[in-house]
């Protein structure tokens, strides 16, 4: 079953590579429960098939960086980029993209949360394994209030400008 608008997010754990140690977060990969991270927050989530891939690096992440302040002004508390990659790769990609804490680079290393959402993408025949479909969603206190699922490998509705118009 695929997640849809009005659904509560499934439970899951995402990891994030923490660059600077703080109270409760050690340097390196830290695991976070999705339900705890979304409690009481409005989050813009966008997912990509893979870190460092052409469309994701040239368009998807840059669109959320470009519209970061406007999304925050519309009530978004956090912006997450989710990919079926490990936290080390997501951390390196975040440094490469110069996200500087404006986007949380969230790793779904084994794709378990992506599978629970029903949004996995089988790219085994292309040598890429099982990844995530490209999508964006607004999550308000754990409930999906907007879902923009791309058709095939497209990039037409999951960009930040589209989300901004919907808020």
TrEMBL record:
<dbReference type="InterPro" id="IPR036249">
    <property type="entry name" value="Thioredoxin-like_sf"/>
</dbReference>
<feature type="domain" description="Thioredoxin">
    <location>
        <begin position="3"/>
        <end position="167"/>
    </location>
</feature>
<feature type="active site" description="Cysteine sulfenic acid (-SOH) intermediate">
    <location>
        <position position="56"/>
    </location>
</feature>
<comment type="function">
    <text>Thiol-specific peroxidase that catalyzes the reduction of hydrogen peroxide and organic hydroperoxides to water and alcohols, respectively. Plays a role in cell protection against oxidative stress by detoxifying peroxides.</text>
</comment>
<comment type="similarity">
    <text>Belongs to the peroxiredoxin family. Prx5 subfamily.</text>
</comment>
<dbReference type="GO" id="GO:0042744">
    <property type="term" value="P:hydrogen peroxide catabolic process"/>
</dbReference>
<protein>
    <recommendedName>
        <fullName>Glutathione-dependent peroxiredoxin</fullName>
        <ecNumber>1.11.1.27</ecNumber>
    </recommendedName>
</protein>
<keyword id="KW-0049">Antioxidant</keyword>
<dbReference type="InterPro" id="IPR037944">
    <property type="entry name" value="PRX5-like"/>
</dbReference>
<dbReference type="GO" id="GO:0034599">
    <property type="term" value="P:cellular response to oxidative stress"/>
</dbReference>
<dbReference type="InterPro" id="IPR013740">
    <property type="entry name" value="Redoxin"/>
</dbReference>
<dbReference type="GO" id="GO:0045454">
    <property type="term" value="P:cell redox homeostasis"/>
</dbReference>
<keyword id="KW-0575">Peroxidase</keyword>
<keyword id="KW-0676">Redox-active center</keyword>
<dbReference type="InterPro" id="IPR013766">
    <property type="entry name" value="Thioredoxin_domain"/>
</dbReference>
<dbReference type="GO" id="GO:0005737">
    <property type="term" value="C:cytoplasm"/>
</dbReference>
<keyword id="KW-0560">Oxidoreductase</keyword>
<dbReference type="GO" id="GO:0008379">
    <property type="term" value="F:thioredoxin peroxidase activity"/>
</dbReference>
<dbReference type="Pfam" id="PF08534">
    <property type="entry name" value="Redoxin"/>
</dbReference>
